Amino acid sequence: MTMKPINYIDYIKKDIPVLFEADCCVCGGGTAGVPAAVTAARGGLNTIIIEKGVTTGGSQTQALVLPFMPTFTEGSDTPIITEIKDRMRGEGIEMNDGVTEFGWFNPEKLAFVYDGMLEEAGVKILYNADLIDAVTLDKKIKYVIVNTIEGLIAIKADIFIDCTGDAALSRLSGVKTESGYEKTGNNQPMSFRFEMGGIDLDRLYQYTRTINDNWCATKPPYFEIALARHRQIKYALEPIFVAGYERGELTLDDIQYFQAFTITAKTGCMSMNCPEIPVKFKATNAADLSGAIVYARKMIHRIAKFLIKNMPGFEKAYISREASMIGARESFRIIGKYQMSEKDYYERRTFDDAVAKTAWYIDAHGEKVGDYLSKGEYYEIPYRSLVTDEIDNLIVAGRCISATFILQASMRIQPTCMSLGETAGAAAAYSKKHGININVIEWDKVENDIKAYKKL
Ligand SMILES: Cc1cc2nc3c(=O)[nH]c(=O)nc-3n(C[C@H](O)[C@H](O)[C@H](O)COP(=O)(O)OP(=O)(O)OC[C@H]3O[C@@H](n4cnc5c(N)ncnc54)[C@H](O)[C@@H]3O)c2cc1C
């Protein structure tokens, strides 16, 4: 529900202290933001990253979203992804190399690895820092205004990277955005993820065999259970959840989508990719976002109680962690120089200025599921979908780049967002070094060795 303003007030002008000056300011320290900041700093830029939470990783570590979904196309992993996987291995977290399998990981270790990478690269990390405004002049962002423990502060930079997921910096600086599916107005459903501990995973696995649940090809410690009523597939778990609904233990909303993944190096724990919140709660509306949390917390407790009572292996389980950030799959998307659309997916388009490639399917949670690409097929994402006509010193990375609702449902997976962040950081360094505005760099003409994603 969109709230009508009660009134408008004058925003009182104040003197705001400029506390930091940098070559590059990355707003949002999430999935795309960390690769962006690390790459910009390694490219020689004095870089600051501002993050409203207390961990970097965003959806990966605060919204508890795992695993990395596969791009299903060889050669998509850019160097930063390979490095992150290697560093995770160095922390004792097993990670597979493939791009055709899930990239199971551990959120606490990832947050730790990210801090280390940022510090080593010399990035200034500003946690508990909420971007609230941008000061623009002559098509350039001059300052961002950030709310901190000290009150409002300003950060000056030459180049800005918007990795907020919600296109927050872009909107504050006047970039046009879109939101939701043009046919329904709905955003993709949000989820409020949680973890459960104390699960007997072997018992759960054995039970799934007795009910012929062949959904997951792997077994513990890398194991998943799921049901999704919007898909054609009939999941073995569905009758069990429907029976729970009929007994009054679950609601209809609770049983629409359920998914649980094991978590690397967290014995007996599963990460719940649910509850999926009804789409009447919009990801772009302040009151809805808050209402969604209250609604979803009730769902979490009902689902957990149901599992403990009915699901073999969960007898001694408990809620061990709740996300510190709601999981928004889609909110605001910028309208950039090139807007990607489902045509790019269906026509397997490639671009001279490509910055990433993927074959992940259109996963719009109920609105429309596109055809899968065949083995060896993929589409690419062009540089121009990361930059805008409105602002010369801004680049955008992550799930809010310029893409239609349907295409975004394919490009939003973590590895792709990480690669986009890496390119944004490399482009910032290139822009500074060559004195070229970041929004007019002809990426196809840039030397291959500075590109994260190299076309074959
Ligand atoms: C429920 C759910 C399940 C998913 N499942 C999978 C999956 O299994 N595998 C997969 O690969 N992908 C999955 N995805 C998609 C993927 O996780 C996201 O699309 C991706 O992580 C988004 O990356 P991002 O960098 O754009 O945003 P984020 O990682 O969310 O980062 C945005 C960061 O910006 C910060 N921020 C925002 N606004 C401000 C502000 N005003 N000031 C300061 N900081 C700010 C946030 O705190 C956050 O840290 C899922 C998404 C959701 C929501």
Helix and strand arrangement:
Layout: E1 18-27, H1 33-42, E2 47-50, H2 79-90, H3 107-121, E3 124-126, E4 130-137, E5 140-148, E6 151-162, H4 168-172, E7 177-179, E8 194-197, H5 201-210, E9 224-228, H6 238-246, E10 257-262, E11 270-272, H7 286-310, E12 318-322, E13 332-334, H8 342-346, E14 354-358, E15 379-382, E16 394-396, H9 405-411, H10 414-434
At the third CATH level, what is the topology name of the largest domain? FAD/NAD(P)-binding domain
Termini separation comes to 47 Å
The figure for the number of domains is 2
Order of helices and strands: EHEHHEEEEHEEHEHEEHEEHEEEHH
What is the CATH level 1 assignment of the largest domain? Answer: Alpha Beta
* CATH architectural name of the largest domain: 3-Layer(bba) Sandwich
The CATH superfamily of the largest domain turns out to be FAD/NAD(P)-binding domain
> How many helices in DSSP terms?
10
Mean pLDDT: 95
What is the count of β-strands? 16
Helix-strand category: alpha/beta
Question: Hey, roughly how much beta strand do the residues contain?
Answer: 15-25%
Helix fraction, binned, reads 25-40%
Please mark out the parts with pLDDT under 50 across 5 or more consecutive residues, or reply none: none
What spatial form do the alpha-carbon principal axes imply?
globular
Please outline the major beta sheet.
7 strands, mixed
